[in-house]
Amino acid sequence: MNIIQVILIVLVAFLAGCEGILDEFQFHQPLVACTLVGLVAGGDNLPACVMLGGSLQMIALGWANIGAAVAPDAALASVASAIILVQSGEGVNGIPVAITVAVPLAIAGLFLTMIVRTLSVPIVHIMDGAAAKGDFKKIELWQILAICMQGIRIAIPAACLLFIPAEAVQAALAMMPAWLTDGMAIGGGMVVAVGYAMVINMMATNEVWPFFALGFAIAALSQLTLIALGVIAVAMALIYLKLSEGAGSGAVAGVSGDPLGDILNDYE
């Protein structure tokens, strides 16, 4: 890669790190981050990076910050694994290895997150002092600085990976025995399945299980494309909402199917 591509990839990494906090333009999402890295790298890397991002997205959907438990760093996992995939030069064939590498990278990203958040503590106190004095410009300045720290948290590891020669990455991957690469491919597929299972576990209710079973059966039809499946899914969702509205309008008081609504109706 030339210097322009390196700078753009580091910029993508920086934006992904910032978006991990801002959560506005979704640059930290695997599908977006990997796609941007593949787009900047050019050549045949874009399709492979899109597929990598889609696979990692299924894993990241099951990651969530719950209480004091911080989810693995999806931004670092996405950018780093996409860079490794590009430097490996294996294209689509390198996706399983990249997925397997992404998971430990996401966990390692928690250490960088801890460092940045620890450094952000005194910044909060500085902003409190500025707020007491009514210095809004100083508050904005330190807020921007704290957000940029999140971007640097991803940009520095990305830059380090980019400075590793592509030949070294390819040689390291070539040295792996077949049993290791095959095992990583199987493990990468299992990680995606586990991530999808975590999403289902969070969303599963008695009302949506029939739709899941129906979608699982329809997906087995090879003649249907992803667009066709999407159209069917939207149609089923609209039918469900319409039927729910109709059932709600004629529902008997206290049997609305909404537990919270039933509780509130009891107090009316």
Shape: globular
Q: What is the CA-atom radius of gyration, in angstroms?
A: 23 Å
- Work out the helicity level: over 70%
The averaged pLDDT comes out at 79
Question: Count the strands?
Answer: 0
Q: What would you call the structural class?
A: mainly alpha
Strand content: under 5%
Largest sheet: none
Report low-confidence residues grouped into runs of 5 or more.
251-255
Q: SSE order, as H and E? A: HHHHHHHHHHH
Distance between the termini: 68 Å
Separate helix tally: 11
Describe this entry's structure for a reader.
This protein has eleven helices and no strands. It starts with a helix and ends with a helix. Residues 251-255 have low confidence and may be disordered. The chain has helices spanning 3-22, 30-41, 45-60, 74-88, 95-133, 136-162, 166-174, 178-203, 209-218, 226-249, 259-266. Helix 4 (74-88) packs across helix 5 (95-133). It is mainly α and 268 residues long.
